[in-house]
């Protein structure tokens, strides 16, 4: 996980922010991507691995924050039974998302050895986290649940899912760039 001191970007250059913007264009939510990751530009520099690590760290942080918020909502007085069930299901889903993202952050740091295995795990776990987040939102799609609880939770979880979606794309791009780099270096290794 990136440290909070890594967040500051007094030494960021136009090249590093241009790199982040260019990579974020491939995501589904490019403005959100740039907003979340530009504060890490001095750490990211022009490294796709560090970009993917930062994206995962931001996603994990958002998921932890949303999980905490949803847990507080469960203790709110006056919840109808259908709202309470949806909130409880969302708590479980967000806990699972946090677990998957936490594993992903740890696993990506091990990707220097047995790259395909570790990055494959990260891609699977981030995809699972995104599914858990979307499942939480699905629990509030019941038309009988219109109100402040639904709005507050779905807004936060949707934002979190968008950040996770962006992280997944950036991990895919990192994996793809590594495959291209590995195959081109393998091709030149056999030259006389």
UniProtKB/TrEMBL annotation:
Keyword field: Apoplast, Disulfide bond, Secreted, Signal
Record-annotated Pectinesterase inhibitor domain positions: 15-170
Protein name: Pectinesterase inhibitor 7
Pfam family, any one: PMEI
Molecular function (Gene Ontology), one example: enzyme inhibitor activity
InterPro entries cross-referenced by the UniProt entry: Invertase/methylesterase_inhib (IPR035513), Pectinesterase_inhib_dom (IPR006501), PME_Inhibitor (IPR051955)
Compartment(s): Secreted, Extracellular space, Apoplast
Matches recorded under NCBIfam families: PME_inhib
Species per Swiss-Prot/TrEMBL record: Sesamum radiatum (Black benniseed)
Family according to the record: Belongs to the PMEI family.
Record's GO cellular component terms: apoplast
Key word Secreted present: yes
């Amino acid at each position: 996980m990136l440290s909070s001191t890594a967040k500051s970007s007094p030494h960021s250059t136009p090249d590093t922010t241009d790199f982040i913007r260019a990579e974020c264009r491939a995501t589904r939510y490019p403005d959100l991507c740039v907003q979340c990751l530009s504060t890490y530009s001095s750490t990211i520099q022009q490294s796709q691995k560090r970009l993917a690590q930062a994206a995962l760290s931001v996603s994990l942080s958002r998921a932890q924050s949303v999980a905490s918020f949803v847990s507080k909502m469960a203790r709110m007085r006056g919840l109808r039974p259908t709202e309470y069930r949806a909130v409880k299901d969302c708590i479980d889903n967000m806990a699972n998302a946090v677990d998957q993202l936490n594993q992903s952050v740890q696993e990506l740091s091990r990707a220097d050895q047995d790259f395909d295995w570790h990055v494959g795990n990260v891609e699977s776990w981030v995809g699972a986290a995104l599914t858990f987040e979307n499942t939480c939102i699905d629990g509030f799609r019941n038309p009988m649940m219109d109100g402040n609880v639904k709005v507050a939770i779905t807004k936060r979880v949707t934002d979190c899912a968008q950040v996770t979606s962006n992280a997944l794309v950036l991990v895919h791009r990192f994996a793809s760039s590594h495959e291209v780099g590995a195959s081109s270096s393998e091709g030149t290794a056999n030259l006389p």
